[in-house]
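User: Could you check the structure of this?
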Amino acid sequence: MSPASRYTYLGPEGTFTEAALRTLPEAATRELVPAVSVQAALDAVRTGEAAAALVPIENSMEGGITATLDELSAGTPLMIYHEVLLPIVFALLTRPGTGLADVKTVTGHPAAQVQVRRWLAEHLPDAQWESAASNADGARLVAEGRHDAAFAGEFAAPTYGLDPLATGIHDAVNAETRFVLVGRPARPVAPTGADKTSAVFWLGEDHPGALLELLQEYAVRGVNLIRIESRPTGEGIGRYCFSVDCEGHITDRRVGEALMGLKRICPQVRFLGSYPRADRVGPQQRKGTTDEEFIAAADWLGRALDGRA
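Assistant: Sure, the predicted structure tokens are below.
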């Protein structure tokens, strides 16, 4: 297939990222190509080798995925067009014939360890943990005989010829990971009424209340923030940018004006996209923040300037 019909994702085969990608209807008609890292997946989009990439950006146990946040805030700009929420439940995958008493070493992605710690302490208190590049890569290492068991999605078992020794493993009920489909910049997808807008902004002069001044650009327009995380810019200690998700679409007057306000006072603002929310939750709108009220206020100002107010 041509690059225009190719999607890449954080691999290898059998990752939760692949499972999330396959929930998108268009995935059935695309060539799905695993990448060795978030950077490699996004670089394939930047160079035109793929039309889009699906990468994890946030999980309910540890917050933002720093590799993704940093890649989206640096380098050639990219844009988010879709998000996927995937419940995360692990299985303990082993080679056929392995019993629980045979498991002396276990592996998986470091983020998996956080989510199965209590289960490990109860069922395999003496097993040694060794981190892998991904949960699917851990399954590959087990298949090669380098570890006894791996925590991964149960769906990865057939790919690597393993058996699920235990299933339904999770320390936190309702744990989930958020993934985003990223492509090259273009016009944002049309608003649905239940949208999210992502952006990154940089502080200018550091002074008391500097961050508060930036957040007020959202607050005074009634824009609800869903997520805000600081990330170092690499320019020295104390130099940060802020990755933000808010309710609404850039075509909403309140959201567009908030971004304009940030652009006026920040040395740099990067728009990452407006796209449908996976949970389909509509925005909170206080009195005075609807598009109709913004339009009415602009009309009043126009009449005032014409001497008709």
